[in-house]
Amino acid sequence: EIPSWSLAALGMYCARLARVARRPSGARGFASEKEIRDRLSTIKNISKVTKAMNMVAAAKLRKHQDELEKAKAFAKGTEGLFFEVESEKPTMVVPVSTDKGLCGGVNTFVNREAKFLMMDLQKQNKDFTLFTYGQKSKGNLKRLFGKNMVGGIQDVGGGATTTFAEACEVADAISAQEFGNCKMIYNSFVNIISYDTLTVSFPSLADFEAEAETKFMAYEEEGDEGGLKKNFYEFLLATQIYGILHNGQTCEQSSRMTAMDNSSSNADEMYDKLLLQANRVRQAKITKELMEITGGAAAVQG
Predict the structure, then answer these.
(1) Would you call 133 helix, strand, or coil by DSSP?
(2) Which one of 130, 203, 242, 257 is separated from 88 by 20 to 30 angstroms, measured CA to CA?
(3) Is 84 exposed, middle or buried (0-12, 13-18, 19+ CB in 10 A)?
(4) 195: which strand partners?
(5) Smallest Cα–Cα separation from 96: which of 144, 132, 65, 142?
(6) Tens digits of per-residue pLDDT, 162-176?
């Protein structure tokens, strides 16, 4: 439900636009005291929203940081087990973005890296497909690479912390696609104010099973020989995606917290400047009225 004060602010803003539209073309004029007061009210309401979003993002960030540490501990020992293969099948690019905005440049960096990668593949005349994770990558990249898009995933978990079961579902959806090598582009959390945009690669299940005999020759195999490689591939992929999704969620909340803090500071600064301007207009109005009163009194006496 939209708060009543937010609707009131929107109404005042629309009224302000209507007044501006009624002015003659090329006409210039100073804002009246009422217009400045209306703008002050709008800015104050915006500041309330951004401060509230900042506090919510800060609370979520602490939770996501704890879950990220658990995901890193869970995936420890599986790094470097995936490999790239020579394949005639197309390369699949998977940018990992968010479903919501107002979170700084986390989506911009991922989408930009994905664009550069696909443009480079085009220059090399290599086939590629696009499989998006998150609404922001789908909306941004579909305009340029819509013909290469084969699918996508949105709204995993509804904004809640990603579970390993959900990561397994994402892994199943990705591995079901037709590709030779898959390149996932995501943001890796460093600290509250910084993150790195990284790319990880892994082969398809068929190519993994074909090359695993050579790549893991130093390891002994136990159990069902027919399903061992498939199970190992699925576990590695789900574990890696589990860490990637937690990194993305943590970066989203940290960037949103920073963006909302900057927005609140800008709103407060704008409010102070407009308040000073409103006081000057009010003081000028009072001075003018006093001059008219004293001038009228002098005329009566004279």
Answers:
(1) strand
(2) 242
(3) middle
(4) 189
(5) 132
(6) 999 999 999 999 999
Helix spans in 102-217 (H): 106-123, 135-145, 164-175, 205-215
Within 10 angstroms of residue 25's Cβ, the number of other Cβ atoms is 4
Rounded CA-CA distance 284/271 in Å is 20
Contact 100, 285 (CB under 8 A): no
Q: Which residue type, as a one-letter code, is found at position 186?
A: Y
Please determine, for residue 8, whether its predicted confidence score (pLDDT) is greater than 80. Answer: no
**Is this prediction's pTM over 0.70?**
yes
Q: Are residues 174 and 237 in contact, defined by beta-carbon separation less than 8 angstroms?
A: yes
The tokens describing 105, both together, are 């440049």
Please name the helix (run of DSSP H) or strand (run of DSSP E) that holds residue 131, with its range, or none. Answer: strand 128-133
Among candidate residues 147, 153, 146, 178, the one with its CA nearest the CA of residue 248: 153
Between the alpha carbon of residue 288 and those of residues 15, 136, 153, 302, the distances in Å are 28, 54, 64, 21
Distance CA 178, CA 82 (A): 18
d(CA 82, CA 167): 17
Distance, in Å, from the CA atom of 167 to the CA atom of 157, rounded to the nearest integer, reads 10
- Write the pLDDT tens digit of every residue in 281-300: 888 888 888 888 888 777 77
Quote helix, strand, coil % in the chain, to nearest 5. Answer: 65, 15, 25
Mean predicted lDDT score pLDDT of the chain: 86
Question: What is the identity of the amino acid at 199?
Answer: T
Q: Cα angle at 215 between 210 and 221, to 5 degrees?
A: 85
